[in-house]
Amino acid sequence: MIAYDKELLENTFAVEAAEDLRDGKFISDEQYKLAKQSFVTLKTNRNIFLRIAFFLLGVFCYSAMSGTFGLMFASMLENFGFMAFCLAIIGAIVTEVLSRGQYFAHGLDDAAILGCQLWTGIAFGITTESPAIVCLSVSIVAGICALRYLHTLSVIVSVAAFVAFIGTLTFDMHVISEIYLTVILFVFAIVLFFIHRTLKTRKNAIFYNWPLLALEFSSLAVGYFSMNYFVVRTLAEDQMGFQVTPANDIPLAILFWIFTFGLPPIFVYFAIKTKNRLMLWVGILTLAFSIFSFRYYYHVLPTEWALLLGGLLVGAASLFCIRKLKGRETGVTFEKDRLHDSRALSVAQAVIVNSHAIQNIPTNGPMEFGGGGFSGGGAGESF
Q1: Distance between CA 125 and CA 221 in Å, rounded?
Q2: DSSP characters for 1-21?
Q3: Which residues are within 8 A (CB) of 125 and not within 5 positions of it... i.e. 6 or more apart?
Q4: DSSP H helical ranges for 172-302
Q5: Residue 331, phi-psi category: left (phi > 0), alpha (psi -120 to 50), beta (remainder)
């Protein structure tokens, strides 16, 4: 199923691991160069900015190719759906050619993969005029791209398209009752999470490291937002026409509030217990969104007092964690992470601090302005 040679993938991951060890000062530059010369790797870009640049180049090439195709077959413009299918097939062919050329997470392949998914959705949208079929087709194509080309973003696209497919079945086609939508999405998130746990134990899980992280993030995000009070109430008001008053809240409002403030601490607890950094960040961000959800409807304190008390609580929690984790050498610690270089932050801090010490020293140039000594020299002090 994987389009790349597994030995080259293993070599690529080994070189990337050696680069991380070099950045963490665990191995020397000579050892890293020796490891890089010893393995034949795929053509990849770990620099995100370079990858974005190649992605933009790929988008430009794909757009130019699409325009050229449209000019060559201008007589088929009346059947634009067929042209969209052809452009989607071209994207799939280009993706396969790039994979055969050993391009992996390079930027050019990202443009071809996402372009194929985009034109697939456009093609099914023109031919069927059904949002449900569009979402389902994009979800399937994105899932295939994630499995075959180890494409991380395709995992998120596939999950988002499938969630949109469920929403279309609920609000447009009325196949699913609106009352059960949140429950169905929450069950879907649980299924995604257990699929992630199952795939993580497979033999080929080493090749799907980043796609599995994207799948875990998607499952946590869908599970939280499907039970968030703010999201559920907004959908009830916009899509179901539910009128919320102080005496008439949405059904099961207390249950949604429990999930809104109960899931983030659960995420944080299991993240610390299992040393899962992604789950920890998701827990912190969802906790912040929970506070936003409560403040959006209930203004218990003025904004300035809420910010002050929130800052005090965060500071106290930080101090407590520092005291508890200080001195520990295993697990979650307060020690410096050698695999994540913080030199850029240190340099920025130094520049900011030293910028206040820079003095504006005037210089004496060869030309004195004022006095009207020559043409353009300025006016003198006398009339």
Answers
A1: 27
A2: --SS-HHHHHHHHHHHHHHHH
A3: 131, 134
A4: 181-200, 209-227, 229-238, 253-274, 277-297
A5: left
Sign of the dihedral through C-alpha 54, 56, 60, 63: positive
All residues at 6 or more sequence positions from 266 whose CB lies less than 8 Å from its CB, including other chains: 283
Torsion on CA atoms 202, 187, 229, 159, rounded to nearest 10: 50
What's the token pair of residue 36?
């890089």
Tens-of-pLDDT digits for all 383 residues of the chain? 788 888 888 888 888 888 888 877 777 888 878 888 888 888 888 888 999 999 999 999 988 888 887 777 766 666 778 888 888 999 999 999 998 888 888 888 999 999 999 999 999 998 888 899 999 999 999 999 999 999 999 999 999 999 999 999 988 888 888 888 899 999 999 999 999 999 888 888 888 889 999 999 999 999 999 999 999 888 888 877 778 777 777 888 889 999 999 999 999 888 888 888 899 899 999 998 998 888 888 877 777 777 788 788 878 877 877 777 666 655 566 556 555 544 444 444 444 444 444 444 455 555 555 555 555 555 555 54
With beta carbons less than 8 A apart as the criterion, state whether 289 and 228 touch. yes
Return d(Cα 189, Cα 256) in angstroms, integer: 16
CA–centroid distance for 110 within its chain: 14
266 vs 123: CA distance, rounded Å: 42
Tabulate helix, strand, coil % of the chain (nearest 5): 70, 0, 25
Q: DSSP code of 43?
A: B
User: Quick one: which of 332, 354, 351 has its CA closest to 343?
Assistant: 351
CA angle 240, 245, 247 (to 5 degrees): 125
Q: Tell me the C-alpha distance between 328 and 308, whole Å.
A: 31
Sequence-distant (≥ 6) Cβ neighbours of residue 223 within 8 angstroms: 185, 186, 189, 190, 193, 263
**Structure-token match 């988002």, residue found:** 160
Nearest-5° angle of CA 249, CA 252, CA 253? 50
